[in-house]
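In response to reviewer comment 3 from the previous cycle, which asked for concrete evidence that the modeling workflow produces usable outputs, we include below a single protein chain processed end to end. The sequence was submitted unchanged, and the resulting C-alpha cells are shown without manual editing.
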Amino acid sequence: MENCKWGRKRLKEMEALKDTFFANRPLTFKNLTDSNLTFEDVYFRIVSFMRQEPMGNYRLMIGTDSHVYSKETIFITGIVIQRVGRGAWACYRKLVYPNPIRNLHQKISIETSLTEQVAYMFNDELKNELIDIVLPHVYKGASLTMEGHLDIGKGQRNKTREFVSEMVARIEAHGIQAKIKPDSLVASSYANRYTK
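The workflow returned the following C-alpha cells.
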C-alpha cells in the first residue's frame, strides 16, 4: 500500500513537472535556412509568402509529432503555409522532454496541446489579417483554410483510434479544421521527419 501512495505522489509530481516544463519553454522556431525565429517572425514570413500570390489557395497547417527514446521524448511542432500546387513555407519547434513518455494517451494529449498552443497564437486579429490578403480575390478562386494536424488515425490496427474523438474536438474548439491520418501530413510527415 505504501508503494501505491508513493506511486500516486510521484505521478502527481511528474504531471506538475510536465505542466511547468512545457509552459516555460521558449517559443522559437527554425527551418533549413533560419533559426531562432520568434512567432512574430514566423507570422511575417507567412504574410510575405501569401502576399506574393494573393490569388492562391492557401492551407495554414499546424501539427505535432513525437518520438520516445530511452531517456527522453522529442516533440516537434510544425507550421506549414501551403500554396496548393505552388509551393510552401515551413518551420518547426523542437522540445526535448527529459523523460520517456510511454503512456500513449498522455503522449498524444501533449502533442495535441502543443498544436493547440501554436494555433491559439493565431488569434482572431492575425487570422483576419491573413483572410484580408485573399479576400479581394475570393471570387477568382483564392482561399485560406486553417488546419490542426493530429498524428492519430481511425484505422482498425491504429492504437490511437480510441483518442480520435477527444483530440479532434479539442482542435475544433479553436475554430480550425482537424485532420487525422492519412490527411495529417504536417504531424505525420513534416514534424515526424525532425523527431528522429
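Residues 1-7 have pLDDT under 50 and may be disordered. We consider this sufficient to address the reviewer's concern, and the full set will be provided in the supplementary archive.
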